[in-house]
Amino acid sequence: MFKMRNPQHIFFETNKDFRKWLIKNHDKSDGFWMIFYKKHTKTKCIEYQKALEEALCFGWIDNIVKRVDNEKYIRRFTPRRNTKNWSDYNKRKVLNLIKIGKMTQYGLSKIDKSVDLHSYSEKEKVKPSDEIPKFIETEFANNEPALINFRKLAPSHKKQYINWISSAKRQSTIEKRLKEAVKLLQKKCKMELK
């Protein structure tokens, strides 16, 4: 089920609801703000990772995130305009979506012929310690104590978390490490060398 709060703000309970919306609107809409409830609210809501996967299937992408209040935030989803610049994270996601047969022809058409989905650059894996990759920050933002505690860490400890999470090769490993990192950060733990 999905609800429109206003023409630009849409709430989806599940990824199936978002996929149904994309089937009808991927080529008609030029974007909207998706409403996400933070985990502590226990409100049934589409998970960010699932929303991103569905968006990629139809050639859409997410970008700006805005805090609404202590219970929710919104994230902008739009059709992809730049078909050449793909993050390594999204390349991995798309490869997996192709493998499991979820990518649509419209989504595939948004991948420029010059994009090599099988090549990953090292720049995505190692960033300056004060930069948090978007996919990590999004997961931490779903759990405010984790994000607050992460921001309080020394730069070297932040870098350990970032490198450990983003060095994983498989999407499932990245997601597992993200969840483990959130649990550690909730307890104000520094990253142990793994």
Domains (count) = 2
Instruction: Output the helix-strand order.
Output: EEHEHEEHHHHHH
Radius of gyration: 17 Å
The overall pLDDT average reads 83
**Number of continuous helical runs:** 8
Task: Describe what this molecule looks like in 3D.
With 194 residues, the protein is an alpha+beta fold. It has two domains: 2-109; 122-186, no CATH class. Helices cover 43% and strands 16% of the residues. The chain has helices at 15-25, 48-57, 88-99, 105-109, 134-141, 144-152, 155-166, 171-186; strands spanning 2-6, 9-12, 32-37, 60-67, 72-79. The protein has a five-stranded mixed beta sheet. α1 packs parallel to α2 (48-57), α6 packs across α8 and α7 (155-166) runs antiparallel to α8 (171-186). It starts with a strand and ends in an 8-residue tail after the last helix. The relative contact order is 0.11.
Essential attributes:
8 helices; 194 residues; alpha+beta; 2 domains; 5-stranded mixed beta sheet
Topology:
Elements: E1 2-6, E2 9-12, H1 15-25, E3 32-37, H2 48-57, E4 60-67, E5 72-79, H3 88-99, H4 105-109, H5 134-141, H6 144-152, H7 155-166, H8 171-186
Parallel strand pairs: 2-3
Antiparallel strand pairs: 1-2, 3-5, 4-5
In short:
The protein is of the alpha+beta class and 194 residues long. The protein has helices spanning 15-25, 48-57, 88-99, 105-109, 134-141, 144-152, 155-166, 171-186, and strands spanning 2-6, 9-12, 32-37, 60-67, 72-79. It contains eight helices and five strands.
